[in-house]
Amino acid sequence: MNRIKVLIVDDEKLITEGLKIILSSYEDIEVVGTCENGQEALDFVRENKVHVVLMDIRMPICDGVLGTKIIKEEFKDVKILILTTFDDREYIYQALKYGASGYLLKDSSYDLIYEGIKVAAKGSLVVHPKVADTIISGVSRKEDYLKEIKKYDLTDREVTIIREIANGLSNREIAEKLYLSEGTVKNNISNILSKLDLRDRTQIAIFAFKIGLVK
């Protein structure tokens, strides 16, 4: 069985050690190391194979936002899952903008963190329910998303696909739900990325949350 290689990054040793012990108890997780800040994490990723980084937000020297940025600039395939006690909207936006695969709170159950790691490893967006509320609360009016749709000249099909991506569906699941071929879905996603000037599916999901297209 291929195990998910996880790096834990937090300046509090009790947290890193606790997470290491618990996550190592799952058969499909391998904790490959721990670091105390984002720069150390980047150095570690340069020397070791890592699939998912569990990254705290507030750390000395190099915090989780900057850590996410510098890791994703060099290693686009490494997934970064923000794990923190702070449900701060500004931090959420910044970390996700730089390519984080999601955001969980430290008081989440270990099972929720474990499931988040698995979801992030597959390339989907992970958002704690409280954090989703925080993101959505930044939308001034629910009808604002209609203005965004018009602004970017999105078709009805593209809007539907954006919504389903934000709901966590894979290309195959979207194709089956909309009675389309998987190739057609991929082509539509390419068009969406071009129109919105975004990098990947995660950023499409963030866009959907930010404009209020999904709840």
Radius of gyration from the CA trace? 17 Å
Q: Could you give the order of the helices and strands?
A: EHEHEHEHEHEHHHHHH
CATH architect. name of the largest domain:
3-Layer(aba) Sandwich
* CATH class category name of the largest domain: Alpha Beta
Task: State the helical fraction.
Answer: 40-55%
Mean pLDDT: 85
Q: How far apart are the termini?
A: 36 Å
The poorly predicted ranges are none
> Considering the protein shown, what is the CATH homologous superfamily of the largest domain?
Response regulator
The major sheet is characterized as: 6 strands, parallel
Strand elements, count: 6
CATH fold-level label of the largest domain:
Rossmann fold
Strand order of the largest sheet: 2-1-3-4-5-6
Structural class: alpha/beta
Q: How many domains is the backbone divided into?
A: 2
The gross shape turns out to be globular
Roughly what fraction of the amino acids lie in strands? 5-15%
The helix tally amounts to 11
